[in-house]
Each structure stands twice: as structure tokens, then as C-alpha cells.
Amino acid sequence: MDLSIQQVASLTGTTSRTLRHYGDIGLLVPSRIASNGYRHYDQASLVRLQRILLLRELGLGLPAIAAVLKHETSPTEALAAHVLWLRAEQQRLGRLIESVEKTIAAQEKGEEIMAENMFDGFDHTQYKDEVEQRWGKDAYARGDTWWRGMLPLEKQELKELVAALNSDWIAASTSTVAPDSTQAQELAQRHVAWLASVPGTPASKPGGDMKGYVLGLAQMYVSDERFAANYGGLAGATFVRDVLTTYAERDL
Amino acid sequence: MDLSIQQVASLTGTTSRTLRHYGDIGLLVPSRIASNGYRHYDQASLVRLQRILLLRELGLGLPAIAAVLKHETSPTEALAAHVLWLRAEQQRLGRLIESVEKTIAAQEKGEEIMAENMFDGFDHTQYKDEVEQRWGKDAYARGDTWWRGMLPLEKQELKELVAALNSDWIAASTSTVAPDSTQAQELAQRHVAWLASVPGTPASKPGGDMKGYVLGLAQMYVSDERFAANYGGLAGATFVRDVLTTYAERDL
DNA sequence: CTAAAGCTTGACGCTGCGTCAAGGTCAAGT
DNA sequence: ACTTGACCTTGACGCAGCGTCAAGCTTTAG
Question: What interface predicted TM-score (ipTM) does this complex get?
């Protein structure tokens, strides 16, 4: 008829702290509070608690449970909505797992296959002439010393980053993503952020014309087959150019 | 060469608040703090931030990211561990979904099929005689008036609870769960908690012999075929009895 | 009568920032 | 020179759901 907080807790497998919490938020108030402040619960409390715990085990949040108990929501309704939530979460995790595994795989073998020439394609060795011609004589020197000065681990990290970016580009260009879609524009943002992180680009210099730089670069991806090869051929490079120019015009 | 916090934020698609947070926890400290307190970042910061964001998108926690950046963990290692985590979570959600859907289904049709006779089997109508004979003359009267006094919605809720408990019992008894296993004992706990929530049971009365009550009841599940039918036949009832007696002996 | 349980309220901690609040700083326009 | 307005700063609360001390009162068993 009249149970103490501990009795209720051990009977239902929860803790007294939880019961006090439920009391605080009004989810399950004690049926009686003695003059010494002790909480006491009766059968109705236990029945209610049973329902609370049942719903909680199914993953419902306390506010949702409260709504059900207040008859503001039917149990079926609440559970159906909850299932949608759960499914969405599960799918999100699925996509995450896919991404992570792709990243791991790209890291283990892509490191040799793509990274070297991909990154090389950008700031040194074989493109020395272009770099000097387009971005000034000292651009190559700066980029090169920067690259040489990096620790091997840092190099690897950058390669991984570029590899990830690149594979995302290819994935996007071979799917039906529009150049001005949010997804594509986010890729452009990442790409530009990466460019900005490379010393020698105009991004960070006081009056640096990052917009012109990106526009020129985007065009080069298409006209230079060596770059185009990195983005899945001419079609891919064209896609990259369109996305980048859209981004540059709108956000730079 | 020297970017403001906002420039970095918009370049990488995060917010200045995030960057300040990363500074606070030491994940990404500004390369320079001017005399006016303004934070400034350089290329190295951007490179580091790129990696942080890449790993964050894959779902890694900030401490894990910090470990990778400090070279305490290799990226591959961290990602591999993370994938395990993700898989476990995904499976947990899968089990949750299953449970919730089972509950919904049981609620929609089980409500008519099982609940009525299941709950009726316990405290009134057809078992009037037994109840009076075993637990005293007034037990039946109390239980019956209590049950009749409940609102329809409350009745339904209790039925659902009992239905869930019952299906778990059957699931456990038809699998290879040992009577003294944690899983089975938790079922017993729920069962006893439910019993205690029914008025007229000795659980809450000052000197109530809950242990004896449960032991007698457990035996009845086996000897009375009407109860046994609720738990999947004699085999199920035997399992229920064993679990309950184990629980009563140990915890009551 | 004392020690051991059991009870109370109060408050921090955890994850990763979002979101005010209150107030300096700086470049541009009047 | 003065006012906007944009951008910057350091706090500090909020969220979900309790776990986990802490300090102190009450009841019970020995």
C-alpha cells in the first residue's frame, strides 16, 4: 500500500535518483510525502512507473513518455513516430559507416595510388612551369619549401584529405547532382578551404584575389588533361569547373 | 597568412563559436592572439582544422580527434575503432526498432486477442473461487472493485503492460536462457513488480509475505493448465516457475 | 546509546556547441 | 569628431538523463 523510494527502486530495477528525477520533472510524483520529507508511493504509482519504464526501454524520451501518460498522445502514435526517428538514425549511422570504411580503404591503398600524383599535381615538381607562370615566380618556391618542410606524417594527412575530397568529387560528378545544389556547393567550399590552406594562394594575402584565382583554376581543370584525369576525365573536370565557378561567383 | 576567426569559419563552413570552443579545449589554438584579444589563424591552423572537420564528419568525438592529431593514435586505428562503435550502435537501434514494432503490433491486435483472457486469468471473474480460497475472502472483492473502478484507458494500459511481459516470458522460455541468468531474473523482477502493483497482493502490506505469495503463485502456473496456457504450455510455465522461485529465494 | 541504513535537498559532470548578454574594437560614412 | 554597424571578446545558461559526491537529518537494529 505504501512503499518507500528504495523499495520501489529495487522492485522496478531503477534507482532512487531516477525516481527523484521523475518527481522533479513531474513525470511520477510520490503519492504521499511524509512529514519528515520521505517520499512514498502506492500501487497507482507503480503502475504508472511500469509504463514509464516500458516506454523508456523502447527508447522514448521522457517528454514523449509524459505526453503519452497525459493522454495527449496515443501510445501507438508515439511509438510510430519514434520508429521513424529510429530508422532515420539507423540509416544515418549506415551512411557514416560507409564513409568511414571508404576513408579507411582509401587511406590504406589510396595513399600510394592516388595521393602522390594528385597532390603533386598541385604545387610542385612536374608543374613548376605553370605555377611560376600563372601565380608568380616565387609561388613555386614557397609551395615547394612548404611541402618539403612538412613532416612525413603531415604529408600523409594532407594526402588523405585531398584523397577524400577527390573521391567525393568523382562520386558527385558521376551522380545526378546539379552544380548549384547544396551538396555540390559544399564540395566547392571544402575545395576552396583546402586551396586557402596551401601557402602561396591568394586567399589569405591582404588584397588577394581568391575569386579570380579559383575561376582560373577551375578553367585549368578542364583545359589541362593532367588535371582532368584526376577528376574522372573531361566530364568530371567540367563538372568540377561548373561547381567551382558557381561557388566563386556567389560566395567569394 | 593571417585570417580572422570569421574568415576561417566561413571558409571551412563552421562557426566562430566552434573555433573558440576548439581553442578552449586545446584542439585548435589560434596561431596568434593580437593585443586586442582577437584570434588569428594561419595556414597550419587551416590544415589542422581541415583534418578536424574531416574526422568530425565521420562521427569521431573531439577527444578521439585530438588523440589522432597528437599522433597518439593512428588515423586508421581510430577509424577502425570508431566503426566498431558505429556498428554496435546501429545494431542496438535495429533491436530497438524490432521491439517497438513488436509492441505496436501487439498493441493493435494483441489487445483483443491476448490481453483480455491474460489479465482476466489473474484477479477476477473466472477465478473467483481460487482467489478467495488462496488469498482470503476479501481479496477477490478488493481486486474486482479495483479493476472495475479503473478507467478504460487505464485498463488498456495495464493490458499492454501484461501483454509485453507475457510475450517476453514466452520468448525467453523458447530460447536457451537459463532460469538463473540475468536476463531471466530481470523478467522475474518485472513480473514481481507487476504483482506488487496489483492491490490485494501481500507486497505492500506491512507484514505481507511476498516471498510465499510468489512461490505459491509460481507453483500454480505449472499445476493449473489455464495459467500454463498463457505461458506457452507446460514447458513455458515450468520455466516461469523456475525463474520466479529462483528470484524469490534470492531477492525477496 | 551508537552505528548503520535510508532519507532529504543541492549541485557538479558529461557532449558539443547554440544562443543570448554585456561590452570592447575598428573601418566607414556624415 | 562622432555615430553606425560589423566583428571581436569573455562569461554563462541550456540541452538529456540521470550518476555521483556532499552535508546533514531520521529511523532502525544491536
Answer: 0.67
